[in-house]
Design brief:
Layout lengths: L1 E9 L4 H11 L3 E9 L4 E9 L4 H10 L3 E8 L1 H8 L1
Length: 85
């Protein structure tokens, strides 16, 4: 299953490394990643991940990271479009 994850994080050099490590350790594969830097010292990271595992296994662990302010997991729009065809 493919999921879109939207993370709001502190702007620190090590944040992406920590996020990617948790994604890998939880058995998810990164399909794409996009980051937008905001002026208030936060960044928004949009990550598309794939795995047969439940997304809650990943989102609960990402929420525990000190530099992650918010974590939202949504079913991927790409997968929804394929299901309708």
């Amino acid at each position: 299953m493919i999921y879109d994850m939207i993370l709001t994080v502190h702007q620190r050099a090590e944040v992406l490394e920590r996020v990617l490590r948790v994604i890998r350790h939880r058995g998810f594969k990164v399909m794409s990643m996009n980051m937008q830097v905001h002026e208030n010292e936060t960044s928004m990271v949009n990550v598309v991940v794939e795995s047969e595992r439940a997304i809650t296994l990943l989102s609960n662990q990402l929420d525990k990271l000190i530099d992650v302010l918010d974590c939202q997991a949504l079913p991927s729009q790409t997968e929804n479009k394929l299901a309708r065809v």
